[in-house]
Write a structure and sequence with these properties.
It is built from 9 helices and no strands. With 166 residues, the protein is mainly α. The longest helix is centred in the first third of the chain and has 20 residues. The N terminus is likely disordered.
Length: 166
C-alpha cells in the first residue's frame, strides 16, 4: 500500500495536482501542465482520469451532481478514449444524467461508455434498463442479454444481474 501511495503522489505531482515543489526547477524546465498529461504519457493521463472519476463518484454519493459532472467532464477530456477510465467516467455521467431526468443525455453517455469499453457490464445494464423504461423492448433486451454475459466491476455477478432485473 505504501508503494502505491508513493506512486500515486509521484504521478499526481507530475500532472500538477500537488503544490509546486519548494526548490526551484533548473533553468529552461517546467512541470507539465494538465493539457500535456494525455500527450506526455497515457499512464499519467489514465492516473489523472482515475483520480477525477474517484472524486466525482464521491460527489455522486453526496448527490452533488454539478461537481460530479464537472469532474467527469475533466476525466473524459484527459482519459485515453478507449480506456477503462473513459468508459467509467461516461457511465457515471450517464448515471447522473439519468438521476436528473435527462434520458436522452443519459442514453448518449451509456452508448459512448459501451463504445469506449464494450466489456463494461454497468453501462450495458444501465442502457438496457433505460431503454426498457422507454418501452424500446428489443433494444433493451439486446443490451441486457449482453450485460449478463459480462463481469461487473463489483465482481459479484449474481448480485449485479439481480439488481439489473429490478
Amino acid at each position: 500500500f505504501a508503494f502505491q501511495f508513493i506512486l500515486m503522489l509521484t504521478l499526481l505531482s507530475c500532472v500538477g495536482w500537488l503544490p509546486a515543489q519548494t526548490t526551484p526547477l533548473p533553468p529552461g524546465t517546467s512541470l507539465p501542465d494538465a493539457d500535456s498529461a494525455q500527450t506526455a504519457s497515457p499512464d499519467i493521463a489514465s492516473a489523472r482520469a482515475a483520480f477525477l472519476v474517484s472524486k466525482a463518484e464521491d460527489n455522486i454519493v453526496r448527490n452533488e451532481y454539478d461537481k460530479a459532472i464537472s469532474q467527469l467532464n475533466d476525466a473524459i477530456a484527459v482519459a485515453p478514449a478507449t480506456s477503462p477510465q473513459a468508459a467509467r467516467a461516461l457511465y457515471d455521467r450517464g448515471y447522473v444524467e439519468q438521476e436528473q431526468q435527462h434520458a436522452d443525455a443519459a442514453e448518449a453517455d451509456f452508448r459512448k461508455a459501451n463504445a469506449a469499453n464494450p466489456q463494461q457490464f454497468e453501462s450495458h445494464a444501465a442502457l438496457g434498463r433505460l431503454l426498457a423504461k422507454q418501452e424500446q423492448w428489443k433494444a433493451a433486451q439486446q443490451e441486457l442479454e449482453l450485460a449478463v454475459r459480462l463481469q461487473p466491476a463489483s465482481g459479484d455477478r449474481a448480485q449485479a444481474i439481480a439488481d439489473t432485473e429490478r
